[in-house]
Write a structure and sequence with these properties.
Elements: E1 12-14, H1 27-36, H2 42-58, E2 70-79, E3 86-91, E4 97-98, E5 101-103, H3 110-122, E6 128-131, E7 135-141, E8 150-160, E9 173-179, H4 181-187, H5 191-208
Parallel strand pairs: 2-8
Antiparallel strand pairs: 1-6, 2-5, 3-4, 3-9, 6-8, 7-8
Length: 223
């Protein structure tokens, strides 16, 4: 097992090269990320327990997209540096506005998965992922392939863009758009995305209300 030091009470913003995001095939890694997630409400706690039960049953294969019962994914609520806007993508296949994210593809370091997917799908250089996660969701999908209908077990993180962020989409989106909280309801038709975004905006409002030295962000891999 690759050791995972608990985050404790202080959130961290981690860059892609941080050793705490090293790729892992150890299911204890994803279990730790799931358990430390900042969740509220009976529904999310029930979802957490369901995902942990599937992880106990399937082990490392739950991170593989070929696991028919379902598989782990990592999503990113990308916030600008002021936490006043989030970057959504008009998904090419689904034709819906969604947050960046995707399959774990064998990697049980789900914070790293979320950051990798956000970087690939937005093209923004210098993104950082906040740990712990702030949301978890289970939803049914069908990509029209041999796997058929299955579950995405989605752990969701805030990802913060740098001040000079320049977005550039890839083939997975028709369009990228920065969205304010006021614009969110008109654009997004996915309740779990609205829940995630509202939680992320509320969290961001808390960290932008204080000076950088008092925000509690631990960015150093040695701390």
């Amino acid at each position: 097992m690759v050791g995972l030091r608990p985050v404790g009470g202080n959130p961290c913003l981690l860059a892609a090269d941080d050793p705490r995001l090293v790729r892992s095939r150890d299911p204890l890694r994803s279990a730790a990320r799931i358990r430390e997630a900042e969740l509220s409400g009976d529904r999310e706690l029930e979802v957490r327990d369901r995902v942990l039960a599937l992880l106990a049953d399937h082990g490392e294969t739950l991170a593989d997209r070929t696991t028919s019962v379902g598989h782990l994914t990592g999503s990113a609520l990308v916030l600008d540096s002021t936490a006043q806007r989030t970057l959504l993508m008009l998904h090419t296949k689904l034709d819906r506005w969604l947050q960046p994210g995707g399959h774990a593809d064998g990697d049980h370091e789900l914070a790293g998965v979320a950051l990798k997917e956000a970087t690939e799908e937005t093209g923004i250089v210098g993104l950082r992922v906040r740990v712990p996660a702030i949301d978890i969701d289970i939803h049914s999908v069908d990509h029209g392939d041999d796997l058929g209908e299955h579950l995405h077990l989605d752990l969701r993180f805030v990802v913060v863009a740098p001040d000079d962020a320049v977005e550039q989409g890839n083939h997975e989106s028709q369009e990228l758009r920065w969205v304010t909280p006021e614009e969110l309801d008109d654009l997004a038709d996915e309740p779990s995305l609205v829940r995630l975004a509202r939680r992320g905006f509320a969290l961001g409002a808390g960290w932008t209300a204080v000076s950088p030295r008092r925000r509690g962000w631990n960015n150093s891999p040695s701390d």
